[in-house]
From TrEMBL:
Gene Ontology MF: a single term: catalytic activity
InterPro entries named in the record: Histidine_triad_HIT, HIT-like, HIT-like_sf
Bilayer-crossing regions: none
Protein's name in the database: HIT domain-containing protein
Organism: Candidatus Yonathbacteria bacterium RIFOXYD1_FULL_52_36
A matching Pfam family: HIT
Domain of life: Bacteria
Start and end residues of each HIT domain: 4-112
An example Gene Ontology biological process: nucleotide metabolic process
Catalytic residues, chain numbering: 99 (tele-amp-histidine intermediate)
Residue ranges annotated as motif Histidine triad motif: 97-101
Gene3D superfamilies: HIT-like
Length: 140
């Protein structure tokens, strides 16, 4: 398997900055902002639903601990996200191994200036038809 995160585990731990029984944490490379962390399950999975309960608990516990460290020592805000995008080919910017991004943030930081300043143009008002469609689908 050609998985960069699995290779980190098997090739050595020089990139790993923190480890638990079921997870490891690395600085993202490439990164979006300084201090951009990735919390990664050690077992290769692609979706949250594939995690065992103890793996899921530890993954989120680690993400929360690291978010608190970011907020205490480094930044006033933190973006946390996880992406499942099987429609994108694996490459430098996309890895087919579940991971959680933690990005230290400040008001109008470089990431905001280059990317998020445009998010107002992307967001759209929720229509009543869309609300009906999705509220029924997700309520089941």
């Amino acid at each position: 398997m050609n998985c960069p995160f699995c290779n980190i585990i098997t090739d050595g731990t020089e990139r790993i900055i923190r480890q638990t029984e079921y997870t490891f944490t690395v600085l993202s490379n490439p990164r979006l902002v300084p201090g951009h962390l990735l919390v990664v399950p050690k077992r290769h999975v692609e979706k949250l639903s594939e995690l065992k309960k103890e793996e899921r608990n530890e993954l989120f516990d680690e993400a929360i601990k690291l978010e608190e460290k970011i907020l205490k020592y480094f930044a006033t805000g933190c973006d946390m996200s996880q992406h499942y995008r099987p429609f994108i080919k694996q490459g430098r910017l996309k890895v087919n191994h579940l991971h959680i991004h933690l990005r230290p943030r400040e008001l109008e930081d470089e990431f905001y200036q280059k990317v998020l300043i445009h998010e107002n143009e992307v967001f759209q008002d929720l229509s009543s038809e869309e609300f009906e469609k999705f509220s029924k689908m997700f309520a089941e």
